[in-house]
């Protein structure tokens, strides 16, 4: 979608590039975190009783469902469960 005018895009670049590299990095991290919050809230709306593990799996699927085949995704989900089980067994 391209609904931002060229003038506004130039202004955005001016604002961003007036920041130091560390400020730009920090802003990028904030945007990633906000995106994750939005995804998690969307998932919680559909499943209010979701566990922490189920949430991690659901977020992973939301982000990467187009990057892996069904068998690959099934293997990854199995690994999530195995990792969670090991965490509970180890001190």
Note down, in words, how this protein is organized.
- It is a single chain.
- The chain is mostly helical.
- It has two domains: 1-48; 51-91.
- It contains four helices and no strands.
- The relative contact order is 0.06.
Tell me briefly what this model is.
The protein has 91 residues and is an all-alpha fold. The chain has four helices and no strands.
**Element string (H = helix, E = strand):** HHHH
Q: From the alpha carbons, calculate the radius of gyration and give it in angstroms.
A: 19 Å
Sheet bearing the most strands, described? none
State the share of residues found in helices, binned by percent.
Answer: over 70%
Report the mean per-residue pLDDT as an integer: 95
Q: Span between N and C termini?
A: 49 Å
Number of domains: 2
What's the overall geometry? elongated
Number of β-strand runs: 0
**What is the number of helical segments per DSSP (H or I, 4+ residues)?**
4
User: What structural class should be given to the helix and strand makeup?
Assistant: mainly alpha
Could you list the spans in which at least 5 consecutive residues all have pLDDT below 50?
none
Tell me the strand percentage band: under 5%
Please give the structural blueprint:
Elements: H1 6-18, H2 21-46, H3 52-64, H4 70-89
Helix pairs in contact: 2-3, 3-4
């Amino acid at each position: 979608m391209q609904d931002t005018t060229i003038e506004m895009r130039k202004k955005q670049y001016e604002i961003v590039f007036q920041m130091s590299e560390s400020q730009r990095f920090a802003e990028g991290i904030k945007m990633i975190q906000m995106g994750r919050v939005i995804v998690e809230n969307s998932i919680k709306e559909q499943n209010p009783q979701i566990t922490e593990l189920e949430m991690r799996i659901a977020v992973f699927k939301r982000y990467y469902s187009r990057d892996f085949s069904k068998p690959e995704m099934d293997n990854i989900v199995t690994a999530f469960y195995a990792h969670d089980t090991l965490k509970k067994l180890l001190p």
